């Protein structure tokens, strides 16, 4: 009697686009309801807290970390040949600060007029960035910060201290493979939370649901229907128009955490959009959201005039200037796998980095 009826799996495959779209609409509807529960006063408080300069002199370990980071930053600006004036290098209490601010604005204006990327600057940075990061880490006390590596991958990370600290783990781009999540699931505190997003609904929802919360869409610069490269398995890859949700909405309204301990971003192409949101005074910064550890896979732009080349170059330099993140590892596998650590957040430093300098304090 039921032999000619379509099975549930056939039904889901046939209507997966509609199901995915409906899921997105429902999620956004619920988000729009819940967002009103967070009043503006709380948001302003979070912003003020995020913009306040943290006190890294609380302990000797944190003070050493801060000094090591500042030396690393100087080294990176030197190897990147970044001699542009920056207000971050100046004291607001200086009587001549207004004049220095004017000099910076003039320098930035001139820099924009002459800064045209020919592709050569990008190619050089793409292939040399890893050696630059290694050189500056080894020349400063940041050599203490030796991250662990997920077995069989180029993924870098630090474990929290104490080890029973609950963590928030977010991965964008699952690719029908949750071996990374399983690795962290075994090592992190049992009450840690896992979130994953990928537009391929069928394969990823089944394997991610036992681990954490799954979102069936791509994460990009804005919400809408856009083209994306989909990875169904290690062999099957295709390009289609799929539902995207904006990076800002994804973190502020769906994840809804003040601290993201681990962010792994492998969304093909979306990583170039992500950089602006992660930067100082970016969307996440303004929302009071702190990301402690970032693993991003940058996909190599193939076209000579691809605008992503200039976006990449400018954001790398800007990240170093901003004094927010430290670049600890770059693995070139055709694409670049880059590991950033937040060394401007006191909370991130205490969770992951402070203990790494304890041996030196004992020697003082």
Notable features of this structure?
Rossmann fold; 14 helices; alpha/beta; 364 residues; three-stranded mixed sheet; Methyltransferase FkbM domain-containing protein; seven-stranded mixed sheet
Describe what this molecule looks like in 3D.
With 364 residues, the chain is α/β, with parallel strands linked by helices. It has one domain: Rossmann fold, CATH 3.40.50. Helix content is 45%, strand content 20%. It is built from 14 helices and twelve strands. The protein has a seven-stranded mixed sheet, with helices on both faces. α6 packs parallel to α12. The protein is globular, with a radius of gyration of 22 Å. It starts with 7 loop residues before the first helix and ends with a helix. About 5% of the residues have low confidence. This is Methyltransferase FkbM domain-containing protein.
Question: Helix and strand succession?
Answer: HHHHHHEEEHEHEEEEHEHHEHEEHH
Indicate the proportion of strand residues: 15-25%
Q: What's the CATH first level?
A: Alpha Beta
Q: What ranges have pLDDT less than 50 throughout 5 or more consecutive residues?
A: 33-51
Number of alpha- plus pi-helical segments: 14
Number of domains: 1
Q: What's the arrangement of strands in the largest beta sheet?
A: 5-4-3-9-10-12-11
Structural class determined from secondary elements = alpha/beta
The count of β-strands is 12
Radius of gyration: 22 Å
For the biggest sheet, the summary is:
7 strands, mixed
Report the helical percentage.
40-55%
CATH topology, by name, is Rossmann fold
Q: Which geometry do the CA atoms define? A: globular
Distance between the termini: 82 Å
Q: What is the CATH architecture descriptor?
A: 3-Layer(aba) Sandwich
The average pLDDT is 79
